Amino acid sequence: MNLENIALQIPTILLPNQDVDLTRWAVIACDQYTSQADYWNQVEKIVGDAPSTLRLTFPEIYLEDQDKKERIDHINQAMRLYLAEGTLVEHKPGFVLLDRKTSHAASRKGLIVALDLEHYDFSVGSKTLIRATEGTIVERLPPRIKVRENAEIELPHIMVLIDDPDKTVIEPLFKLPLEKVYDFELMLNGGHVQGYLIDNPSHIAAIAEAIAHLAGPEINNPNADRDILLYAMGDGNHSFATAKAIWENNKAATEDQQAIMGHPSRYALVELVNLHDEGLEFEAIHRVMFKCSADKVLESMEHYFLKNGMELLLKTCTSIEEAKEIALAAIQERTHAIPFMFQGSFGVALIQNPQLTLEVASLQAFLDEFIKRHPTAELDYIHGEDAVEELSAKPGSIGFLLPALSKFHLFKSIARDGALPRKTFSMGEADEKRFYLECRKIR
Are strands 159-162 and 231-235 parallel, antiparallel or unpaired? Predict the structure, then answer.
């Protein structure tokens, strides 16, 4: 199996030496708890002077601080120090199989690999093997590029999904006799994680064959007119896009295009997760509009969908439970049903013959246009139905409830419609997000 055909590379993983306290080493993804300074203050106290990925990453809660340049300089210095002093130790080239226990899931399995950025394009309409699940906001990349462009190593909080309902890639690996490389408690309710090195060539070949099988026979025909979606971004899309931007910059800066193709920045370290893993939960993200007239919003909805060749039926209900029952019944028909509520009133919007695959896509397309026409209106993305009901009870607001994204619809929707609307789904709670742990040299 040619690994390049499936955008895969065998990385050389760096892990802390045996004297490092791994609980203090591993910290949560930088884009979590961005409004909760107390969390990061606790992390700082736990880490103290110990070696830690806290010194190698830039928590986004600090992005607006005035010392960004100094912080990035300290990150680069810490990377060089950890390499020079042997804090980080190279293992044999291979993958890392991991099993994560969280406060919400007894087990979530993953596989640390490197993916080929030559097979990724976050542009709208991309048909590459690796695709974004949500739109990439280019304006969010520059601060991330600043952190990575002079970095010696990378640390992934990127989680990439594979669509493997028969569980052929990751799950069978736990039956193999493997070397355990870590086993420890994560800080601050992060759970427990175990990791195993996979460096046996026959095991790696079996993984590659299983991934190729997910893609189908056309994966081995480079001359075919292919539209194969093999990997979908789960968490860390903007970090992956940052790695892509730097790789493209590196290519543009060299005259020897053949030589640059072997550069380590061509690849990015990620955790592969099976979309159908029982420990991976998709949670709905609802919408609440503020500073608007609910009647005006609903009237505009009717006009919008009629203008775009669809019929919208607004049905009044006596409770949100009734609206949800109607929405549930509509699943059997070609109808998008979206319950709504405002100031004690309830209803459900029934969109006939929708043009997009998901309810969230139909609703977001309307909301985006409404905000353009009514710039004083505000839109927020809300977790939990109780919060939506509380917020929409206030004057000048209206809330829309959306269904949780079905795992079976994710790849189908991306293949058909392209990247999903922002805030379509959440992969678990904040403390279930990936912790920084494994590293790889990128220079």
Answer: antiparallel
Are 438 and 268 contacting, i.e. CB atoms less than 8 angstroms apart?
no
Start-to-end C-alpha separation, the chain: 27
Q: Could you tell me the residue ranges of all domains in the chain?
A: 3-281+429-441, 286-401
Each residue's pLDDT tens digit, 353-377: 898 878 988 999 999 999 999 999 9
* Residues 48/79, Cβ–Cβ less than 8 Å: no
H/E/C letters for each residue in 217-253? Answer: HHHHCCCCCCCCCCEEEEECHHHHHHHHHHHHHHHHC
Q: Which DSSP string do the residues of 269-291 spell out, in sequence order?
A: EEEEEETT-TT--EEE-EEEEES
Sign of CA dihedral 306, 311, 314, 320: negative
CA-based torsion, 248, 252, 254, 259: positive or negative: positive
- Give 3-state DSSP helix, strand, coil % of the chain, rounded to 5: 40, 25, 35
How far out from the chain centre does Cα 352 lie? 31
Under-50 pLDDT residues of the chain: none
Comparing C-alpha atoms, which of 276, 277, 254 is closest to residue 265? 254
What is the rounded CA–CA span in Å between residue 120 and residue 71? 30
268, 158 in Cβ contact below 8 A? yes
Residue 301 CB neighbour total at 10 angstroms: 21
CB 438 within 8 A of CB 182: no
Please write the tens of the pLDDT for every residue from 104-163: 899 999 999 999 999 998 877 778 999 988 776 677 777 788 888 899 999 989 999 999
Q: Whose CA is closest to 419, among 184, 219, 238, 176? A: 238
